[in-house]
Amino acid sequence: MENTDFNLISELISHPLRILITSHSNPDGDAIGSSLALWAYMKKKGHTVQVMIPDPYPDFLAWMKGHNEILIFSRDERACIQAIEAAELIISSDYNNLGRLNDAANYVRKSKAVKVLIDHHLNPSDEFDYQISISRISSTSEIIYNFIEEMGDSHLLDKEIAECIYAGIITDTGSLSYACNYVKTYVILAHLFQLGIDGEHLHRLIYDTYSESRLRLLGFSISDQLVVLPEFHTAFITLSKEDLARFDHQIGDTEGVVNYALSIKDINLAALFMERDGIVKVSFRSKGSFPVNTLAAQHFNGGGHRNAAGANCTTTLEETVSKFRLLLPSFQPMLKSVY
Ligand code: 5GP
Ligand code: MN
To answer: Rounded to whole angstroms, how far apart are CA atoms 200 and 266?
Structure first.
């Protein structure tokens, strides 16, 4: 189902408002890219705008215009609560239910602000007054581009906004390797280049920023922790708290690790299980027709997209992995016949 309340939202933002843009925990390139692109655009439209996220964003995103003005709930709860209470309009960018705001969720739920969703995940919750929810689009950043276009404001796009949108598209499509078989994505990219972005430079800012310990953690994950189950076309990696501490783990360091497991020939399902304080963070990836969002939602209380999904589990690392392994036989027919 697609929801595109463009006209209603256009009406809503036709006079200056105090707008709070929020995105999800463990923010990725699309979460930050879409939020900051929208932030810059809404400011140009004359609104008073702030961005708030539940927890910090990784360093490799700390170059986008406006990144150092983002409010982070886990670091500055008071300022965030004030911003939530002051907002007349709250936009949820790149996530589909308020629960993904963690401790900030209830403050947002209680707020009397008009709530707008701009997102590309399936099955948005009913907590929003208006929605732009288009799941076939690669990234929320691409939807933000469309949104600005629909508002008749393409002339307000500039190089800095283009850089944020580019980062979102590139990170949510694995550098244009999945979820990107759409002509419009490339038409938009061409326009971003016309606006003056340096794609090669941005690619380096996002991807060539490893610390030595991050690269060694990747090496360890692949050489010591990778389990391959050819009969189930599945490969997975587990990282305990101790493993992460040993490699001086920083936010964002495990980004992309799960994709190496998926890059093996005939492996159609990959998972990364990571022990964090009190929870296990799981990342699922798949090739083609195998829907990891269904797997994540039905068995791990998570969600996401067909080929990239995740969950946060309260079970132990061992329990979570063992549950996953026990589920595999029931998925074997689907895993065998991925198209
Ligand atoms: P990642 O594995 O990169 O953390 O997440 C991949 C995708 O899965 C995200 O873009 C998001 O859509 C989804 N996702 C990750 N963690 C969760 C979660 O805890 N709950 C839900 N509903 N979706 C998640
Ligand atoms: Mn996204």
So the answer is: 31
